[in-house]
Amino acid sequence: MSTTVRVSCPAGTVVGLSDGDVTRFHSIPYSDIPGDFANATRLAPQELIDATTYRPETIALTVFTPTGARPLADLPVVVYIHGGRFEYGTHGDRRADGTPNALADVVTVHIGYRVKLAGFARFHDDEPNRYRGIDDCQLGLEWVQRNIESFGGDPTNVTLVGQSAGATTALWLARRDHYRGGFRRILAMSPCFPRASFGERKASLRMAIGKPVTRDALARVSPKTLDRGYNRFRTIHGMDMALGPSPLEPQEQADIPLWITSTREEFYHMPAGQKADSLRWREGIARRMSRRMGMSGSFNTWLEHARMMDPQRIVGRLIGDASNRRWVSQAAEEAPGKVWMTEFVRTRGPAIHCSEIPAAFGLEHGPLHDLLLAFARGEDLPWPAFSPDDSRQALRFNLDNGDAEVISDPLLMVREAFSG
User: Fold this and answer.
1) How far apart are CA 240 and CA 247, in angstroms?
2) Tell me: the pLDDT tens digits for 41-55?
């Protein structure tokens, strides 16, 4: 049986629900968005905020906290940003449910943000390197700084966690032109960046929607028509992120600790890759795709490694390496702060994109959750830091049985293929 809990904070009086152990405050508004393509501003304080119901259609945030947590309890805070290709997802990602964290005395906040063109189309008057979807997250982090003490959290001990597009957003928020001290460290799981900038794709978007790519023009298009046009646009760009911030420039990031991870078989489950890998000429298909997918080094060298790993899934591996693992490698190589790297594997099938999220958040029993909790409490991770000047040590972690081993340079084939 749930009981209501009220928390008074600078944003207003927030009403959530407790099951006796964990209190959940769903869909708390944190910004004022006057139009889909307008810049958001901080929401003025409200008298009463009903946070008892999850409202996925809203741009909002959700807080999980131990029931009975006192204001100023200084509990560590994990802020999670969801993935979804910058096209879908909300502040209610059940794979990252904050209940196990709360039971371990860690506060969790999920931040939602605008996606698709509302969040990531760029206009002529936008500031350099700014995206409305990412600025939404910035406002969410500012809400955390102002209010989380009232929920028992410590605003000076915030760990930013993102997966896929959320990991990309976390890395972008760490850029020095964005970073405001709202978090102390990052866990970035399988980040993904588009291979071309929005400016390079603007003409194809205009062709797809049949309208000028301006704030006013897009605001006048009906949501249904805009969605149809966007679907044409994303089809044009096929095996890549249609939208998202670019380029990745790790050297522009603030000097803060980074834990960066990848899954070994990121996109084995993509239907187009599965279909191509079912054909006997899969290697020829991969060869033809490789340059278009950003490979600049030797395809033959990469292919030798791919054959040794799984000769039946060459195209699937290429998609994952081009979409995620290359960015993991670059971020680890060039980040200015301390870096730890993890590669997730499985014994019962491939370790695909998103498979690590439930384990990291404790929804699947195992030691990965303990590592996240330790990291959130400010501890160094218990294996050697990654260093391009040494042997590039990383942790290979088995999601099925929790076994872990320190290995050297797991992304060598990716680094040579995509930075050659």
Assistant:
1) 14
2) 999 999 999 999 999
pTM value surpassing 0.85: yes
Amino acid identity at 272: A
pLDDT in tens, 260-277: 999 999 999 999 999 999
Domain ranges of the chain: 3-193+250-273+338-401, 197-236
- Locate tokens 């404790």: which residue? 362
Rounded CA Rg of the chain: 21
Cα atoms in the Cβ-side hemisphere of radius 13 Å centred on 77? 30
3-state SS class at 33: coil
CA distance 267 to 308: 18
Which amino acid is present at 412? Answer: L
Q: Mean pLDDT over all residues of the chain?
A: 97
Please provide the size of the chain in residues.
Answer: 420
**Going by DSSP bridges, is the β-strand pair 48-50/75-81 parallel, antiparallel, or unpaired?**
unpaired
Note the pLDDT tens digit of each residue in 170-201.
999 999 999 999 999 999 999 999 999 999 99
CATH of 3-193+250-273+338-401, one of 2.70.50.50, 3.40.50.1820, 3.40.50.300, 3.90.1150.10: 3.40.50.1820
In order of 43, 190, 357, the CA distances from 261 in angstroms are 34, 6, 11
